[in-house]
């Protein structure tokens, strides 16, 4: 082996630094790796809240395995659909799928479903650090248990420190199957899904079987379930990555006696602020820092509670277990009281408090090229109850949009785009509107590539008097800037002057509060076809969504594995 020796005097400092940074760059690139997962998806009997029912599992578990990767890695997931009688697709929630729009996992939009007995391989790059989610995106399967977390570690130091990194998924839980719920939503007369029976904390809950004396112990057995336990060491700082994948409920999350410092939202660093109750909506993720600085001789309650709907579902309960106390030792106190379910003010205040962290601000364009006002309405179409946007209820086509557009398949969907607004000036958002001219359509918005688009989400009264619901809206393929929130009807002349253009947070999921509005801005710079929809399962099923196309001519060759349905029958090759 030849040993090379250099005199430090012979090599200028500038050259040494250049060589170091070149080495570091190559080393960082070399670190990117493939992360392989092999999943078997099937129905199994489980009792997450003591009540036994069929749930969808991944490798025998719900929630499914956490995907762990590092920024820049490629994630490869082989999905075997062993549901026997049911199609399947999986969406990688918060992953922008830059260069791989066909692996977004949205059946009817970006791919044909995975048929029973088939195997499908998803392959995508996780290009940003942060906390993300995955879940079923076929029918209402998500609420049957097919969901999990994605944790992407940063390559560079983060702007906060902690000792341990832990994850918690919050969910609500129904005892009826998704088939029963879907049938009711599609019936005349309309049958609403109702409120969930339980709230789960990382897949664990506790339904009081004695409330239903007719339930036999082989169906509901309180010895078959246990609360979620998060064991902690006193005197440490914990990063808790908290995600919500509720089917219906907005939640308040609390750890008894502990403050939480919010530092990340949907993969973006937040200017830190402290909360006792973290309000979280379906599809959102947060990282909070928690110091274990309380009396170490006892345990503490972890709670989740429904907000924004009349609270009939019992609290979800877990245990914040201070080691070495026994993890099953109940706290000596009653669980802390939740905020009022109908108190909008603290929820709006938290939404307004979320700003981009100094040093990590990505300022939005100061103006937009297009403004689309999306009025959220509820109406009847041919006696069926629907959720609609601008009086148009969304339906999915049989041939996915991405394939139809890229392969020039005509007549696959309605070529007429939805409206950019809806008689907005004269619409009374505070009263029940008949919306007599409501229609259903699978038409989509065609966006000019690489332009700036504003979306104004406007909430309104439902078909019940004095009622307006919270809607969490999720955009696939992008992050957007949250420019502002407001009460009442959006005023284009005055509310735009209040936009936050200095340090708005970027997110992929955001709530529109009752009788209020939310303003978003994004760049149409990711070639593909992307869904934007309410993340409440029943609402999207009933038509509360839209689809954006942008830069379709820039999309690469589609893999044949996403084809095989609608007018693409015969295109599929395993």
TrEMBL record:
CDD domains, sorted? CuRO_3_AAO
Which Gene Ontology molecular function entries are recorded, alphabetically? Answer: copper ion binding; L-ascorbate oxidase activity
What EC number(s) does the entry state? 1.10.3.3
Is Heme among the key words of this record?
A: no
Residue ranges spanning the membrane: these are none
**Catalysed conversion reaction:** 4 L-ascorbate + O2 = 4 monodehydro-L-ascorbate radical + 2 H2O
Q: Which InterPro entries match?
A: Cu-oxidase-like_N, Cu-oxidase_2nd, Cu-oxidase_C, Cu-oxidase_fam, Cu_oxidase_CS, Cu_oxidase_Cu_BS, Cupredoxin, CuRO_3_AAO
- EC class of the enzyme, as a word: oxidoreductase
* Database matches in Pfam families: Cu-oxidase, Cu-oxidase_2, Cu-oxidase_3
In the record, the note on similarity to other proteins reads: Belongs to the multicopper oxidase family.
Q: What is this protein called?
A: L-ascorbate oxidase
Native source organism of the sequence = Vigna mungo (Black gram)
């Amino acid at each position: 082996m030849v040993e090379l020796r250099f005199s430090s005097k012979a090599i200028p400092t500038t050259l040494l630094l250049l060589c170091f940074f070149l080495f570091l760059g190559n080393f960082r690139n070399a670190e990117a790796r493939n992360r392989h997962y092999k999943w078997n998806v099937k129905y199994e009997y489980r009792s997450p809240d003591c009540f036994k029912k069929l749930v969808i599992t991944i490798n025998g578990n719900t929630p499914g395995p956490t995907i762990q990767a590092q920024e820049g890695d490629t994630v490869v997931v082989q999905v075997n659909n062993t549901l026997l009688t049911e199609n399947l697709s999986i969406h990688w929630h918060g992953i922008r799928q830059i260069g791989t729009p066909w692996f977004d996992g949205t059946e009817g939009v970006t791919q044909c479903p995975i048929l029973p007995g088939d195997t499908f391989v998803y392959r995508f790059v996780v290009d940003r650090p942060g906390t993300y989610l995955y879940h079923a995106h076929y029918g209402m399967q998500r609420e049957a248990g097919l969901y999990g977390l994605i944790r992407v570690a940063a390559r560079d130091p983060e702007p906060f420190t902690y000792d341990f990194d832990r994850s918690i998924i919050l969910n609500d839980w129904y005892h009826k199957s998704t088939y029963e719920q879907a049938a009711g939503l599609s019936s005349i007369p309309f049958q609403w899904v109702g409120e969930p029976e339980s709230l789960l904390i990382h897949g664990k809950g506790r339904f009081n079987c004695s409330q239903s004396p007719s339930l036999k112990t082989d169906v509901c057995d309180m010895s078959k379930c246990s609360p979620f336990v998060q064991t902690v060491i006193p005197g440490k700082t914990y990063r808790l990555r908290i995600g919500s994948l509720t089917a219906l409920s907005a939640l308040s999350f609390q750890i008894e006696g502990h403050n939480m410092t919010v530092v990340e939202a949907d993969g973006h660093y937040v200017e830190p602020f402290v909360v006792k109750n973290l309000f979280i909506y379906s599809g959102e993720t947060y990282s909070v820092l928690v110091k274990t600085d309380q009396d170490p001789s006892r345990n503490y309650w972890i709670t989740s509670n429904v907000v924004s709907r009349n609270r009939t579902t019992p609290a979800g309960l877990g245990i914040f277990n201070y080691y070495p106390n026994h993890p099953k030792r109940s706290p000596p106190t009653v669980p802390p009281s939740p905020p009022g379910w109908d108190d909008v003010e603290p929820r709006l205040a938290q939404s307004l408090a979320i700003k981009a962290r100094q040093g990590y601000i990505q300022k939005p364009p100061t103006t937009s090229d297009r403004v689309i006002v999306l009025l959220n309405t509820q109406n009847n179409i041919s006696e069926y109850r629907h959720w609609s946007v601008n009086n148009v209820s969304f339906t999915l086509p049989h041939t996915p949009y991405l394939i139809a557009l890229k392969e020039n398949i005509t007549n696959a969907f309605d070529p007429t785009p939805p409206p950019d607004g809806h008689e907005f000036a004269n619409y009374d958002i505070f009263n029940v509107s008949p919306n007599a001219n409501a229609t259903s359509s699978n038409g989509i918005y065609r966006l000019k590539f690489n332009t700036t688009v504003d979306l104004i989400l406007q909430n309104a009264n439902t078909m019940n008097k004095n009622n307006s619901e919270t809607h969490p809206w999720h955009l696939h393929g992008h992050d957007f800037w949250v420019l502002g929130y407001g009460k009442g009807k959006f005023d284009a002349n005055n509310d735009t002057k209040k936009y936050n253009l200095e340090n708005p947070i970027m997110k992929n999921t955001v709530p529109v509060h009752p009788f209020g509005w939310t303003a978003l801005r994004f760049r149409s710079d990711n070639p593909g076809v992307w869904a934007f929809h309410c993340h409440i399962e029943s609402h999207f099923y009933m038509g509360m969504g839209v689809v954006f196309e942008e830069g379709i001519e820039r999309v690469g060759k589609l893999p044949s594995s996403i084809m095989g349905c609608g007018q693409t029958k015969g295109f599929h090759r395993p």
